[in-house]
Amino acid sequence: MMADRERMSGVRRGAHPLFSGGFTLIELIIVVVIVLALGTVFLNRVLYYQEMAEKTAMEGVASSLQSALTMQYAQTMTRGKPSDVPAIAYANPMDWLQSKPRNYAGEFYDPVPASIEPGNWMFDLKTRDLIYVPRSTSYFTPGKDGRKWVRFHVAVGYEPSLLPSLKQEPASLTSILFEPVEPYVWF
Fold this sequence. Notes:
It contains three helices and seven strands. It has 187 residues and is an alpha+beta fold.
């Protein structure tokens, strides 16, 4: 009967009640440090993947604009007006889309990154570039201008005529691309 009572109380005869098998302070500190380290690694990965999702969304809009540019070019050539190609390069690419993205802030003349809220697009009326200002820039390296944004433009490539002739032959169009003004680094 005495053994049953000792078993139920959890205290053995001769054992000190303060050392009943709980956690020590050092064990608790080690567990807290491990949990904090895992939390830090997890938070860092979450922020990284969030930034990569933003990059993917930006590149998705750029890809849609490239498709719209191709359609604009095809429409111009179908109408038999290759002389209108420079006007395509001068236009605001957002006007080619059936509906503008929700994060399109509008047109600005010679903007600075602080002109709009991060995570938005804007069109620079001075340089005729479409600009994306990233929301998260921990893994983004700015270009030569040092500004944390990505500038896109329409690049039209021409190749001079190779046929010798008495009259001046027009250069032939070789490419029309919606591309970054300068390569960006966003890991």
